Amino acid sequence: MKSNKAEKIIQKLWHPTEVRRLARELAEVASTALTVKDRPVRRPRADRLAAQITQRAAKTSDLVGLVRKISEASLALSHARYGAQQVAAPIPAAALVESVVAAMNQSLAVWEMSPIATAIDRDLMTGFKKLFGYPRAAEGSLVPGGAFANLTALLAARDALVPQASKSGKARIAIIVGAQAHYSIARAAAILGLGRDAVFKVPLDAEFSTDVSQVTHSFASARKSGFRKFILVGSSGSTPTGSFDNLVALADIARKQRAWFHVDAAHGAGLAFSPRFRPRLKGLSLADSLIFDPHKMMFMPLAAGGVLVRDGARLFGPLQEQAPYLFGSQRRWPDLGQITVACSQRFDALKTWLVWRVYGGELWDHLTTHVCDVAQAAFQYCSESEILEPVHQPHSNIFCFRLRGRHDRDSDRRCWAIKEQLNESGFAYISSTVLDGRRVLRIVVMNPRTTADDIRDVLRRVEKIAMQMGGEIRSN
Ligand SMILES: Cc1ncc(COP(=O)(O)O)c(C=O)c1O
Question: Model's pTM, two decimal places?
Answer without folding.
Answer: 0.96
